[in-house]
Amino acid sequence: MLPPDYHMHTHLCHHAEGVPMDLARQASEMGIREIGVSEHNPMPSDDFDQWRMYRSKLGEYLANLEEARRAFPNVTLRAALEVDYLPGYEEWIRELASMHDWDYFIGSVHYIDGGWDIDNPNRLEEWRARDVYDVWAAYFDRLTAAAASGLFQIIGHADLPKKFCFVPQRDCTSLFTRFLEAAAGSGTAIEINTAGLRKECREMYPSPPFLRLAKAKGIELTFGSDAHRPGEVGMNFPEAIALARSVGYTHSVRFERRQRTRVPLP
Ligand SMILES: [Zn+2]
Ligand SMILES: [Zn+2]
Questions:
Q1: pLDDT tens column, 10-46
Q2: Whole-model pTM?
Q3: Ligand 2: distance of its center to the CA of 66 in Å?
Q4: Domains of the chain
Q5: Which residue among 95, 99, 239, 264 is least packed, with the fewest CB closer than 10 Å?
Q6: Helix, strand or coil, per DSSP, at residue 81
Q7: How far apart are the CA of 9 and the centre of ligand 2, in A?
């Protein structure tokens, strides 16, 4: 049996395929008993960027989840969002949290200062123009603030800057440690996100040394495929479980209405 898949998207973010019904069907076929749909959160204004759910679609999103629950009663469906953490948006994130009885929020950093979404393949020229360590440091400053904020139950794809293989020569352990201490302080979990295997970096997020540090700091764990199409649900989960075990994890966590419970790894 596979652990819950807590990170996946639908067509409502304009760069993914499928509806929750398709995701639940795939989970059911794979023997995954619990999934969480975590669409990219709406922003106050829909022209913020081109890759997230519109504010006006929240009702449709929740209705789609309800429809999938009815069609696949054998799969527990959690209602979630992957929420961009940007300084100055804390009030908006609280407002989003009040709009529904969400099971959890994944807090992610895609944007660093200057409005650059570092994982956007159309903006690789920014990577080439900047000092790679400075980008990682700016990213982890923001991720540390996200972890400390207490606004999120899970932090998404923690070492995302490695996506396109722009990795600093300098040791980044102190950046990871500061972030993990913030997460430990607020009781925020992290995820093993298998989507990295499908990117240039060919490695899950986070890396084994990073995950080993997380375990040492007592950080709890979830699993996410970051599926952007139904066929990606639960992808590479056996490898993800093996990675978790290899650094000493014996449990993952699940969330219901933001309440956390620990479950043994399969
Ligand atoms: Zn996406
Ligand atoms: Zn993301």
A1: 999 999 999 999 999 999 999 999 999 999 999 999 9
A2: 0.98
A3: 24
A4: 11-264 (3.20.20.140)
A5: 264
A6: strand
A7: 10
